[in-house]
């Protein structure tokens, strides 16, 4: 089943059950506390916070989302993308658990020929919050899920709130057992690779009066009107329904991966490190194209940082695969627009602009690489002349600070020259610089415009997004 069809089926199922289909909002969040939309519920936040009256009691959407917190997982786990799509059904004071759980079960297990996803019942597991007997009862008595496939999890995993006084409550996650070839017995608590989380159902049940941390808050009482917020990962569903090993091999992503392999004359499935690179390229191209499509431009701040980081990490990984200075971004952008265009036809209309932005970023990054490389060569020569085998931390730091050379690039190029790098020294200087910056807020923006994307930008963007995360999404863990 194609990705586009998975989204269609989800929306149709809930539309038939009285939900209004709401188109995806832009990745660029209207919400000032958020950098990018990171959950399907974000556009509905004002309704949940009772700041606005919803024009409907039930809604469903296929929302574009970005999670920068997951970037380091990309390509390494089988299930984390930076850009993905969250399918959701929402109730604003309308139905609650007793209906949300059976809805989910019905859609997952209904035969494909009848508009469902056709999952065999014995593959499905659920988690519920420690004291949520109600949810467990619905799963067991109403739906018929055996008790030994319902696991209880604590606050850290199965409770949701926005990080501010307001609605909160337990959640229930649904997992698909991919079979013993993917890992250990014992359900999701034992192995989240074998037991793949596909859907999270959040039950907004309580009014929280005080929220100190994710797991430390005061409950004022039950909400008079309870809400439902759910999020299903489209790419994870596609991996299962398309019978592939991971989310980078699904229809809309594999074409990009395959093109990257072809362009760099590498082959997927032969070498672990190269495979990670290919998955990162495929993932980051998707994220990059979707961000540009939503009007984001590369820059050194905020969303622009995230985009820049996506594109430069893609370029960097092409290099790791041996692309050198060859320019492949145009071809990769074209295949990405094509792959995502079925679901997002506006990408095709905007293709010329997307190409212009991405091509320019590639040219600028390759330029930075070129300048930095000249400086690097001088540093190597000096090191050799002194008879040393280790490039100084000072030099690595200067390459980073002045020429925007990421440390992993310095490490790789040094290794090619048979040299080591004083990484400890480099990190010490980085830390000193950070401490200085912290002490002097005015010095926050240095002239180091360029490609610190790989280290400092990661921290910056990660931090900004982190706030959004804990505070405003339906992310349970
Ligand atoms: P995980 O525990 O696997 O990191 P999560 O609990 O953080 O997932 P939720 O916040 O509950 O995820 O998001 C709802 C759904 O979105 C998940 O059940 C999953 O199907 C999907 N999802 C979450 N993060 C990602 C990701 N990085 N890439 C692809 N799909 C994701
Ligand atoms: Mg979850
Ligand atoms: Mg989870
Ligand atoms: Mg997560």
From TrEMBL:
Q: Which cofactor does it need?
A: Zn(2+)
Q: Which residues form the Alanyl-transfer RNA synthetases family profile domain?
A: 1-477
Q: Per the UniProt record, which EC number(s) apply here? A: 6.1.1.7
The annotation note on the cofactor reads: Binds 1 zinc ion per subunit.
Metal-binding among the record's keywords?
Answer: yes
Which UniProt keywords are listed? Answer: Aminoacyl-tRNA synthetase, ATP-binding, Cytoplasm, Ligase, Metal-binding, Nucleotide-binding, Protein biosynthesis, RNA-binding, tRNA-binding, Zinc
- Catalytic activities: tRNA(Ala) + L-alanine + ATP = L-alanyl-tRNA(Ala) + AMP + diphosphate
* UniProt keyword annotation of DNA-binding present: no
Q: Can you say where in the cell this protein is located?
A: Cytoplasm
Query: Molecular function (GO) terms listed?
Result: ligase activity
Family of this protein: Belongs to the class-II aminoacyl-tRNA synthetase family.
What does the function comment of this entry state?
Catalyzes the attachment of alanine to tRNA(Ala) in a two-step reaction: alanine is first activated by ATP to form Ala-AMP and then transferred to the acceptor end of tRNA(Ala). Also edits incorrectly charged Ser-tRNA(Ala) and Gly-tRNA(Ala) via its editing domain.
Q: What is known of its domains?
A: Consists of three domains; the N-terminal catalytic domain, the editing domain and the C-terminal C-Ala domain. The editing domain removes incorrectly charged amino acids, while the C-Ala domain, along with tRNA(Ala), serves as a bridge to cooperatively bring together the editing and aminoacylation centers thus stimulating deacylation of misacylated tRNAs.
Q: What is this protein called?
A: Alanine--tRNA ligase
Q: Which organism is it from?
A: Microbispora amethystogenes
The gene name on file is alaS
């Amino acid at each position: 089943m194609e990705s586009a069809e998975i989204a269609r089926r989800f929306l149709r199922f809930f539309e038939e059950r009285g939900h209004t289909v709401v188109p995806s909002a832009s990745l660029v969040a209207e919400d000032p506390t958020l950098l990018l939309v990171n959950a399907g519920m974000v556009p509905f936040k004002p309704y949940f916070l009772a700041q606005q009256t919803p024009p409907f009691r039930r809604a469903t959407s296929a929302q574009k989302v970005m999670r920068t917190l997951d970037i380091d997982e990309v390509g390494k786990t089988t299930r984390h993308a930076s850009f993905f799509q969250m399918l959701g059904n929402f109730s604003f004071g309308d139905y609650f658990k007793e209906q949300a759980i059976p809805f989910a079960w019905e859609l997952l297990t209904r035969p494909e020929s009848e508009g469902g996803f056709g999952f065999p019942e014995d593959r499905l597991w659920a988690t519920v919050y420690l004291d949520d007997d109600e949810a467990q009862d619905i799963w067991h008595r109403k739906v018929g899920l055996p008790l030994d496939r319902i696991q209880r999890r604590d606050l850290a995993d199965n409770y949701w709130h926005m990080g501010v006084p307001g609605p909160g409550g337990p959640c229930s996650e649904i997992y698909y057992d991919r079979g013993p070839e993917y890992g250990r017995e014992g359900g999701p608590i034992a192995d989240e690779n074998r037991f793949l989380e596909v859907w999270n159902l959040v039950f907004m049940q309580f009014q929280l009066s005080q929220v100190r941390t994710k797991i430390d808050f005061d409950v004022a009482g039950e909400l008079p009107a309870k809400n439902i917020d759910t999020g299903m990962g489209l790419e994870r569903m596609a991996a299962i329904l398309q019978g592939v090993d991971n989310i980078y091999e699904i229809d809309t992503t594999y074409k990009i991966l395959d093109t990257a392999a072809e362009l760099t004359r590498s082959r997927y499935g032969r070498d672990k490190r190269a495979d990670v690179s290919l998955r990162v390229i495929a993932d980051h191209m998707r994220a990059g194209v979707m961000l540009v499509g939503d009007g984001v431009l590369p820059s050194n701040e905020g969303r622009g940082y995230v985009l820049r980081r996506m594109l430069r990490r893609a370029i960097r990984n092409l290099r790791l695969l041996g692309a050198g200075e060859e320019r492949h971004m145009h071809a990769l952008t074209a295949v990405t627009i094509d792959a995502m265009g079925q679901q997002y036809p506006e990408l095709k209309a905007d293709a010329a602009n997307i190409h212009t932005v991405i091509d320019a970023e590639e040219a600028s990054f390759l330029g930075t690489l070129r300048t930095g490389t000249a400086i690097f060569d001088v540093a190597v020569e000096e090191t050799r002349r002194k008879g040393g085998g280790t490039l100084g931390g000072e030099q690595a730091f200067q390459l980073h600070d002045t020429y925007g050379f990421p440390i992993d690039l310095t490490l790789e190029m040094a290794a090619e020259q048979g040299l080591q790098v004083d990484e400890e020294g480099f990190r010490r200087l980085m830390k000193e610089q950070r401490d200085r910056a912290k002490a002097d807020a005015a010095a926050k923006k240095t002239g180091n415009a360029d490609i610190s994307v790989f280290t400092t930008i990661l921290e910056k963007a990660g931090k900004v997004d982190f706030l959004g995360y804990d505070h405003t999404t339906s992310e349970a863990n």
